[in-house]
């Protein structure tokens, strides 16, 4: 007897359909990330933790160098580097 779950495991994203995969360009990281995985990825891989929300973080994404508050960091990455517009998502991807 086959389980239906076995067939779902194939392609990419299901619940993240509106946010395409992007390559992380933080310090030449190169990992595949999505808007949804930004908080987890930057916390676990790059050590950007949410402990101090008023701490200033210099963005090391490619040649950005913008200093943002930790509180705004995830939004900065999504909006500036993943082209995710607030409330609208990605204009090139039908929602
Ligand atoms: Zn997105
Ligand atoms: Zn990365
Ligand atoms: Zn940046």
Automatic annotation (TrEMBL):
The organism's place on the tree of life at top rank: Eukaryota
Name of the protein in question: C2H2-type domain-containing protein
Species per Swiss-Prot/TrEMBL record: Boletus reticuloceps
């Amino acid at each position: 007897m086959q389980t239906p779950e076995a067939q779902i495991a194939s392609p990419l994203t299901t619940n993240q359909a509106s946010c395409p995969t992007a390559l992380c360009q933080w310090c030449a990281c190169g990992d595949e990330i999505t808007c949804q995985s930004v908080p987890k990825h930057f916390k676990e891989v790059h050590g950007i933790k949410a402990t101090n929300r008023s701490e200033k973080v210099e963005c090391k994404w490619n040649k950005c160098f913008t200093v943002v508050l930790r509180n705004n960091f995830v939004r900065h990455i999504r909006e500036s580097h993943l082209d995710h517009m607030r409330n609208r998502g990605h204009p090139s991807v039908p929602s």
